[in-house]
Amino acid sequence: MKAICIAVLVIGTSILARSQDPFSVASNLLPAQVSHSQPTVPAMTLEHLEQIALQTNPEIKVAARRVAVAEAHLPSASALDDASLTYRGWQIPFKQPWNYNAAQNMFMVGQALPAPGKRALRSAIAGDEIEIAKAALEAKRREVQARVRKAFYDLLRNADQLRVHDQQVAISRQGLEAARIKYTVGRVPQQDVLKAQVALTRLLEHLLMLEQDGELARASLNTLLARDPASPIEVAGEEAIPAQLPSISELQQIAVDSRPELARAQAAIKLAGDEARLAGKGYAPDLNVSAGYMLMPRASEFRNNYMIEGSVSLPWLNRRKHDAEISEAKVRISVQQAEFEAARSMVFQQIQEALIRAGSAKKLVDFYRGSLRPQTETMLRSTVIAYENDHTDFLNLLDSQNATLDVDFSYFRAIAEFEAAMADLELAVGAPVARASQPPTIEVTR
Asked: Do 267 and 128 contact (CB within 8 A), yes or no?
């Protein structure tokens, strides 16, 4: 009887110990810990976001205002100086300073007339300034579009990673349930259960990092759209990985024709040339003409008269000044030409670097998509089945899950890096880069 009581006590203690397993208490909190909030606003496409940014972005608005200022200056650039009204009183007697009848009273209207060609050149210079401002506006539009694309694909990558996170949570729960069942019947040690708990809990760390990355991308995108950085925003779209990237020579030719910075540099060269021609006009004399009415004293034979007056500048007497202005203008042309060459070299370098990064990222995407990602997913599925049927241990299951998670995250990171490189490439080229997308080997569902 004593032996039976001892046996019952041992069995009861064992059951009580299993029922008080701290894992069984803590596991009730795990589903809430590793879940993430679902989108509450409609998703927007890349095209929609770009349209909003082009209309509302504050940096673009500033550049547009500068264009408006340059255009407003155009009418006044070639306008004549204001006409002048002059009064002259001659021979007013000191003894009778109020007696204007004894004086010669002259009323004149004058106008300064610049040398022929100067007004046209001033108008041309103002037009060049408009072209420079428009090129700066287009460059800012391209820059904002590139930043929107980067933020968009960062959010797209974040959504894919959250989807993979959810899949890994489901697999971890599946392994956790299998470990719990095996532990209950005594087929595995308690360490397997604790390892399953740790594996599921570690996913909370991934979730916190993913949520942080998503919020940072949303703040950046909202700022580009002139919205409150904390506003909720979601995106929808698919990655378009081209079968082949354009050649460097094709991209360079497109950049020469389309890059706003190069157009701006060329407009600056034209501006410097027009300023040099205007400086050369400094030797052309300006004319100042006046006409007026003269009222003579009462004793004069002809009391009512008119007068005409003209004056001309003598620039030949000030050669030092005009020669210096011409020399300065010629030097400015050479400076602008050197800046254009430097800008073109910089553009070609940007194209080369972006193309190299895009090519490397594309190779990684193709590698993950075509071989490594299918292999790790197949390995994970087979490992889960093997563990449920006692054909492998829990460490192999954890290794398979970690390997799959790393490959999936690396895959989506490579896609985001490719899209960022393509955004930089389009920014360097100054025009959209055509890409013939290839169908993905693995379906990406969101």
From this structure: yes
DSSP state of 78: T
**How far is the CA of 97 from the CAs of 29, 41, 88, 378, 441, in angstroms?**
107, 86, 14, 113, 104
The alpha carbon of 147 is separated from its chain's Cα centroid by a whole number of angstroms, namely 3
* CA dist., res. 312 & res. 303, Å (int): 30
- Identify whether the C-beta of residue 140 lies closer than 8 Å to the C-beta of residue 59: yes
Kind of pairing between the strands at 234-235 and 104-113: unpaired
The pair of structure tokens assigned to 242 is 């081209």
pLDDT at 393 > cutoff 80? no
Q: Tell me how far apart the 2 most distant CA atoms of the chain are, in Å.
A: 161
Closest CA to 72 of 117, 139, 141, 133: 133
Rounded to 5 degrees, what are φ and ψ at 276?
A: -65, -40
Q: What is the pTM of this model?
A: 0.75
Task: Considering only residues 408 and 130, tell me which one the structure prediction assigns the higher pLDDT.
Answer: 130
What is the topology classification, in CATH, of domain 44-429? Outer membrane efflux proteins (OEP) (1.20.1600)
Predicted confidence band at 35 (pLDDT cuts at 50, 70, 90)? low
Hey, what are 72's tokens? Answer: 């407003």
Q: Is the pLDDT reported for residue 397 higher than 80?
A: no
Read out DSSP for 136-200? HHHHHHHHHHHHHHHHHHHHHHHHHHHHHHHHHHHHHHHHHHHHHHHHHTTSS-HHHHHHHHHHH
**Who's near 322: CB < 8 A, 6+ residues apart?**
279, 282, 283, 315
Q: Give every CB contact of residue 408 below 8 A, 6+ residues apart in sequence.
A: 161, 164, 373, 376
Which is more confident, 288 or 28? Answer: 288
